[in-house]
Amino acid sequence: MSRLQFDNRFRTLPASLWSDVSPQPLANPRLIVRSDDALQLLDDTPSAWSDQDLLEAFSGATLMPGMAPIAQKYTGHQFGAYNPELGDGRGLLLGEVVNPRGQHWDLHLKGAGRTPYSRFGDGRAVLRSCIREFLASEALHHLDIATTRAVAVIGSDTPVQRETEERGAMLLRLARSHVRFGHFEYLFHSDQQAAMDALLEQVLALHFPDLANDKDRHFLLFQEITRRTAITVARWQAVGFAHGVMNTDNMSILGDTFDYGPYAFMDGFDPGFICNHTDAGGRYAFNRQPQVALWNLSCLALALSNRIDRERLKAVLDGYGDILHGEYLGLLRQKLGLFDTQADDEGLINDLLTLMAGQRADYTRTFRALCQLDSASGDTPAEDEFSDRDGFRRWARRYAARLRDEPLNDAQRGERLRLRNPRYILRGYLAQQAIEAAEAGDNAPLHTLFAVLRRPFDEQPEHARYADLPPDWAQGLALSCSS
Ligand code: AMP
Ligand code: MG
Q: Exposed end of the chain (fewer CB within 10 Å): N or C?
């Protein structure tokens, strides 16, 4: 195990933004799963780290030299209501690592015990929620969607009370920054002007160096955060991912997918899909994500309104929809192989989505099966995903006619499309099976699932069952914020 270098720059910010907190170790910690892809971001030789090394370095029992853990203070809007009491309530920034390439990575330990911002919470995370965040963040990364990363899940014998008694666990998370929209909301709503300036300048210098010396840098920063947010949300929409708790404290200023709770990848296509069963009003329903992210950006705009002219903030917000739509449409074109642009392409795409929604066709399987299509006849195995095959066949013939205007032949197109339409996604029931096995002491199914999700576009015939439709029992799986 090599020694990591630390450079804990968040600690140089005003003390109202953080508190020193020591992690509280768990009983009998053990390594449940690790991502050497993510560990490689810290150290060039992840294989040199034994499981025991990871536990010693990151389970909170002892601190590595250079670590100086803090809990961050922020606020935010939860389900539309401002909550001034937020902050890292059950996670700590262990430190900021500088890797051998000079890149900085925040090391965040989720589930590390109580902090000054825990309120009524116990400061803990459970095995189930740590595995879910681990799998989702690594899965999204391999789907080319901006996200925080996960190095490891650590399990334990410590009992933690949720709806039932569960076991405490920790997730070691990596991000280039843990600054949230809520950090700026905190400083604005508590009128901390000097701290606001300090945070803005640090964020610019560390994460947006190209903008940092521009006299218009605050405006450019907001514009760039808006752009990144639009791109990330468009990518969620294109892959069928519902975040579930898009509160402003769960929005990263880097546009990373952040703070995984009751998220879900959709099975059957349902635009109004609500993955969080505590979200009765559907505020965070799948098809509302684009507008909710815009609402969140307007909270950030307000927080920056002492620094940026309001009309200019509004102009950026007005441009968000076009950025999101442009990215989304581009992704759907790529998913369908519409590389040239024709007038009715959007109609063709929307008609497919309407058909899928009407019959709850499996989102991932339908697109993947469309990679195999005979453009002479319109025949495609995708029709197996539809109960009303005739309606789908009419669409497929239109699509086939459209494809005949494209330069690629069927085989070439299929090859291209298989790089755009994943065969494997993190279906809720697959996560559930892996979690139940891990809770019973068998981590092998989790390791296999993780390996499959690292190559979502590859056929992996030996793992074909992971691309199956979910079984009937999976329909009733309910997810809540209780993690
Ligand atoms: P989340 O829904 O995970 O984004 O959490 C919202 C807020 O509640 C954050 O400030 C968390 O730190 C805090 N929180 C969530 N769970 C706990 C817990 N078990 N103990 C202490 N704070 C928590
Ligand atoms: Mg959160």
A: N
Residue pLDDT, tens place only, 445-459: 999 999 999 999 999
Q: Residue 473: is its pLDDT beyond 90?
A: no
- H helices of 337-362, in order, are 345-359
- Asked whether 276 and 481 are in contact (CB, 8 A), the reply is yes
Return the domain boundaries, the chain: 5-179, 338-417
Centre of ligand 1 from the C-alpha of residue 160, in Å: 14
Q: Is the pTM of the predicted complex or chain greater than 0.85?
A: yes
User: Cβ(357)–Cβ(391) under 8 Å?
Assistant: no
| CB of 121 closer than 6 angstroms to any ligand 1 atom | yes
Closest CA to 55 of 153, 137, 123, 167: 153
Give the integer Cα–Cα distance in Å for 73 and 67.
Answer: 19
- The mean pLDDT of the chain is 97
For residue 481, how far is its CA from the centre of ligand 1 (angstroms)?
A: 9
Catalytic annotation present for 468: no
What count of other Cβ atoms lies within 10 Å of the Cβ of residue 423? 22
Q: Are 69 and 91 in contact (CB under 8 A)?
A: no
For ligand 1, atom 22, which residue shows the shortest CA distance? 89
Q: Are 191 and 175 in contact (CB under 8 A)?
A: no
Ligand 1 atom at minimal distance to the Cα of residue 125: 19
Confidence of residue 475 (pLDDT cuts 50, 70, 90): confident
259 Cβ inside 6 Å of ligand 1: yes
